[in-house]
Structure formats: structure tokens, C-alpha cells
């Protein structure tokens, strides 16, 4: 969990809530930036029509994928703690009679 949540990037993430406050400040700054960008385009409708939202989502997804592939962003089971073996799990097969008896009908 530490690799994906980044909880281990600070000794005590809630100590005096300085860490939480800094994360909140980052979110506020990004939200303000996007708000100003959209207002500068003439509002949400103009931003949608101009493809701003789609462009920003694609840019973010591309950046995220680059970070995963380079190893900068850790995703358990994808680029860290990956099992070398393939496991086959048995299929669950339920007969119609079994479903009826389990549902109480």
C-alpha cells in the first residue's frame, strides 16, 4: 500500500496536519489554475467545445503512463511486486438447480 498511497513519504502524515495542509494547498492551487484557464477561454461551454477537457485528460493519462513505465510511479502488480508465475484459478460453475437452491426459490 505504501507504494501506491505514498503514505511513507513522510514520517507521520498527520503530525500537526502540516502534510495534509500542504496537500490541500496543492489541490487548491491546481483547481485555481484550471478555473482561471477555463474562465480565460470564456467558460465551461467554450472549454468543452474547444476540446480543453479532453486535451487535459489525455495529457494527464499520458503523463501517468510515462511515470508508471519509467518506474517513477509504483503500481503494485504492474511495475512492482509482480508475480513471475501465472496462476490459473478454477472457474466457478453453477448449475441452474444450484442457483435456485441458493436463492431459496
Q: Write down the oligomeric state.
A: single chain
Q: Quick one: overall form?
A: extended
Number of beta-strand segments = 0
- The total number of structural domains is 1
Straight-line distance between termini: 42 Å
Helix count?
A: 5
Amount of beta strand: under 5%
Average predicted local confidence, pLDDT: 83
Radius of gyration: 23 Å
Largest sheet: none
Unreliable runs: 100-105
> What is the string of SSEs from the N terminus onward?
HHHHH
Structural class: mainly alpha
Helix content: 55-70%
Summarize the structure.
The protein is mainly α. Helices cover 57% and strands 0% of the residues. It is extended.
Explain this structure.
The chain is mainly α and about 100 residues long. It has one domain (about 1-105). The protein is about 55% helix and about 0% strand. The chain is built from 5 helices and no strands. It has helices spanning about 1-5, 20-40, 45-50, 50-70, 95-105. The longest helix has 23 residues, at about 20-40. The protein starts with a helix and ends with a helix.
SSE arrangement:
Blueprint: H1 2-5, H2 18-40, H3 44-49, H4 52-70, H5 96-103
Which terms summarize this structure?
mainly alpha; 5 helices; 57% helix; extended
